[in-house]
Amino acid sequence: KKGPKPTVIWLHFMECTGCTESLLRASHPPIGRLVLDIINLEYHETLMPAAGKQAEEVLHQTMEKYKGKYICVVEGAVSTKDGGIYCKIAGKPAIQILKDVAKDAMLVIAIGTCASFGGVQAAAPNPTGAVGVKDVIGVDKLINVPGCPPNPYNFLATVSYILTFGKLPELDKLRRPKFAYGRLIHDHCERRAHFDEGRFAEKFGDEGHRKGYCLYKLGCKGPVTYANCPVIRFCDVGTWPVGSGHPCIGCTEPNFWDEMSPFYKS
Ligand code: SF4
Ligand code: SF4
Ligand code: F3S
């Protein structure tokens, strides 16, 4: 559908920038095309040339000019403890920035598990009171695209769906698009036949591991993790963690740092 390019304000809070790094490696469309032709990316601290006062001005001008019409993308968790002082940008706590920017956004997309559920910052004992976006602004206009990092195509497909159909894709109870997070890793894993037949890698590097047997006994969390990694794979190289011999650690699920550990068993 042809129309004005949607304006995007991309906020970085407590995170590693891995989600942006992952998106930079997409090639359908490549990031250049996305940023120059498909969306109007007004504010993104990693990609924009402006810094400091200039960048702040862009943020405020964009919020004003596109009030009620822009998409806010959030990468990273939000500190809530002690008034949110553990993450500040331009002297302002991230929690306040998020409230201000989200208020007039038509849609908020939390990219990555940090923004969706708190991520590594929220792991026990969570010293900064880190939370996901939903705990600050609620879920009304929120879509979560979790993963650490998420597959860039799940983010791009979410944006494309909204631009094409003018509505949100169907979401699960955690606000994740069902087209990407509707099935368990375990349900479409190429090692599943080995699981069903009881053929397991017992140790990293053993014969079963080298033969591509199931990684369940090494700690694989594929049976409790919803994501399309085995189907969509990563970075156009045709593989994904389990395909490369590494157990799934459940990175698309809430609190995976606490609830999916120990990651390895051997
Ligand atoms: Fe980094 Fe993972 Fe957080 Fe993305 S979700 S910012 S990759 S720690
Ligand atoms: Fe399931 Fe993991 Fe085994 Fe694949 S490797 S079949 S996801 S337990
Ligand atoms: Fe994450 Fe498991 Fe996919 S660790 S990248 S959900 S295979």
UniProtKB/TrEMBL annotation:
SUPFAM superfamilies: HydA/Nqo6-like. GO terms for cellular component: [Ni-Fe] hydrogenase complex; ferredoxin hydrogenase complex; membrane; periplasmic space. It is found in: Periplasm. PROSITE patterns: TAT. Its cofactor is [4Fe-4S] cluster; [3Fe-4S] cluster. The keyword Iron-sulfur applies. One of its GO terms (biological process) is anaerobic respiration. Residues 181-264 form the Cytochrome-c3 hydrogenase C-terminal domain. [3Fe-4S] cluster binds at C229, C248, C251. [4Fe-4S] cluster 2 binds at H186, C189, C214, C220. Its EC number is 1.12.99.6. [4Fe-4S] cluster 1 binds at C16, C19, C114, C148. Residues 16-161 form the NADH:ubiquinone oxidoreductase-like 20kDa subunit domain. GO terms for molecular function: 3 iron, 4 sulfur cluster binding; 4 iron, 4 sulfur cluster binding; electron transfer activity; ferredoxin hydrogenase activity; hydrogenase (acceptor) activity; metal ion binding. Keywords: 3Fe-4S, 4Fe-4S, Iron, Iron-sulfur, Metal-binding, Oxidoreductase, Periplasm, Signal. Belongs to the [NiFe]/[NiFeSe] hydrogenase small subunit family. Heterodimer of a large and a small subunit. This is Hydrogenase (NiFe) small subunit HydA.
